[in-house]
């Protein structure tokens, strides 16, 4: 992706044919959210008191193809702790960004790596296997399709578009949970997340519109929030610790980054998207682990060419404050900020992976430190 991202394309149109009571496999109805009448239509980037310093870039020192660094659905991590994971033609490697030591982890390319770095998904003769990166042992996922399987945290999720069955497999315990998603026609694993130990999906309901649903025990599905109307679709979302939602995509026909307040059921636009001669564009974001800060990107036009500004801001009570631009007029991000950005576990350091050589290879990693 270069410079500007003209909106987003959902892998399939997601719809819910029927929503009823809390019987197994059905979603509980939920009060439709209220739209604030004074939703801000233009982004407000005020002078900031957020102190951010750019440190020396981390030099990769390896030839890594972009397709090797990122392969799979839009919210899989390839930058875990101090380790960068990537494929080469002869297998999977990791690079310690501190010591610059490269290590070969597997003799074959992989689809994705678990959050703890212990497991990987790999394809052998059109069959999906779980690969133990310590022992090298492989376990065949007999029911999994290569087209819709991924790690969700350290569990493996896979979905059958013909049977509408979603499976979640715990690699450590070998236990498996199953949900019937026949009411969610067209669902894909791009819209599943694990937050605070619970599993959530974003999907569309003909009755209630687009919403977020929790996958509960014994195959039950409960609505968390429903957004009335047909003009809402998420690109990504986070369920916050207080039960509110942060998401980006299209809401009520307008693109942007949004906040849904659990208490008031109101939606506030935090950053607006836009439309120009190139098409509709959507800002992407990357939330810090402590939920206090986000990075977000916005395209800018420079002499007929589209580049990207990247901002960092604090987020509190559904409002963005202290927005500060940390990258200006750049065209060397290898992907949108939700993919190229990464936070340290203590939320004090941000990393942004760049691209080089006409966006075919991974460049250096920009490092930003927040002052105490």
Structure overview:
This protein has 372 residues and is an all-beta fold. Helices cover 2% and strands 49% of the residues. The chain has 2 helices and 33 strands. It has helices at residues 66-69, 337-340, and strands at residues 15-16, 34-35, 52-54, 79-80, 83-88, 91-96, 102-106, 112-113, 119-124, 127-132, 138-140, 149-152, 155-160, 165-170, 176-180, 184-185, 192-195, 198-205, 209-215, 221-227, 233-239, 245-251, 254-260, 266-272, 274-276, 279-281, 285-287, 293-302, 305-316, 319-330, 341-343, 349-356, 361-370. The strands form 9 sheets. It has a 5-stranded mixed beta sheet, with no helix packed on it. Strands 3-33-32-31 form a 4-stranded antiparallel beta sheet. Strand 25 and strand 26 form a beta hairpin. The longest helix is centred in the first third of the chain and has 4 residues, at 66-69. The radius of gyration is 21 Å and the shape is globular. It starts with 14 loop residues before the first strand and ends with a strand. The relative contact order is 0.18. Mean pLDDT is 79; it is low at 1-46 and 70-76.
What secondary-structure arrangement, pairings included, does this model have?
Elements: E1 15-16, E2 34-35, E3 52-54, H1 66-69, E4 79-80, E5 83-88, E6 91-96, E7 102-106, E8 112-113, E9 119-124, E10 127-132, E11 138-140, E12 149-152, E13 155-160, E14 165-170, E15 176-180, E16 184-185, E17 192-195, E18 198-205, E19 209-215, E20 221-227, E21 233-239, E22 245-251, E23 254-260, E24 266-272, E25 274-276, E26 279-281, E27 285-287, E28 293-302, E29 305-316, E30 319-330, H2 337-340, E31 341-343, E32 349-356, E33 361-370
Parallel strand pairs: 2-24
Antiparallel strand pairs: 1-16, 3-33, 4-5, 5-6, 6-7, 8-9, 9-10, 10-11, 12-13, 13-14, 14-15, 17-18, 18-19, 19-20, 21-22, 22-23, 23-24, 25-26, 27-28, 28-29, 29-30, 31-32, 32-33
């Amino acid at each position: 992706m270069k410079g500007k991202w003209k909106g987003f394309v959902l892998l399939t149109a997601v719809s819910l044919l029927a929503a009823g009571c809390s019987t197994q496999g059905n979603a509980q109805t939920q009060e439709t959210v209220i739209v604030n009448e004074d939703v801000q239509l233009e982004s407000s980037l005020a002078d900031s008191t957020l102190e951010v310093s750019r440190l020396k870039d981390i030099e990769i020192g390896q030839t890594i193809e972009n397709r090797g660094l990122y392969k799979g659905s839009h919210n899989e991590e390839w930058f875990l702790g101090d380790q960068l994971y990537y494929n080469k033609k002869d297998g999977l490697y990791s690079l310690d960004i501190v010591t610059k030591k490269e290590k070969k982890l597997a003799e074959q390319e992989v689809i994705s790596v678990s959050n703890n770095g212990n497991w990987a998904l790999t394809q052998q003769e059109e069959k999906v296997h779980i690969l133990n990166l310590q022992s090298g042992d492989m376990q065949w996922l007999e029911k999994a399709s290569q087209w819709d399987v991924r790690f969700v945290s350290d569990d493996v999720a896979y979905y059958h578009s013909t049977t509408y069955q979603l499976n979640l497999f715990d690699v450590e315990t070998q236990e498996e949970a199953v949900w019937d998603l026949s009411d969610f026609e067209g669902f894909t694993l791009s819209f599943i997340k694990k937050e605070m130990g619970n599993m959530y999906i974003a999907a569309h309901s003909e009755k209630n519109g687009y919403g977020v649903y929790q996958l509960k025990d014994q195959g039950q599905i409960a609505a968390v929030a429903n957004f009335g109307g047909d003009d809402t679709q998420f690109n990504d979302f986070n369920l916050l610790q207080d039960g509110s939602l942060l998401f980006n995509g299209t809401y009520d026909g307008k693109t942007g980054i949004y906040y849904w307040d659990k208490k008031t059921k109101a939606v506030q636009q935090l950053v607006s998207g836009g439309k120009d001669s190139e098409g509709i564009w959507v800002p992407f974001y990357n939330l810090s682990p402590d939920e206090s800060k986000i990075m977000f990107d916005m395209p800018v036009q420079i002499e007929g060419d589209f580049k990207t500004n990247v901002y960092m801001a604090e987020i509190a009570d559904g409002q963005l404050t202290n927005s500060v631009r940390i990258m200006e007029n750049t065209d060397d991000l290898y992907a949108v900020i939700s993919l190229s950005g990464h936070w340290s576990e203590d939320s004090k350091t941000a990393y942004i992976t760049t691209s080089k050589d006409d966006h075919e290879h991974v460049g250096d990693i920009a490092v930003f430190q927040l002052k105490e």
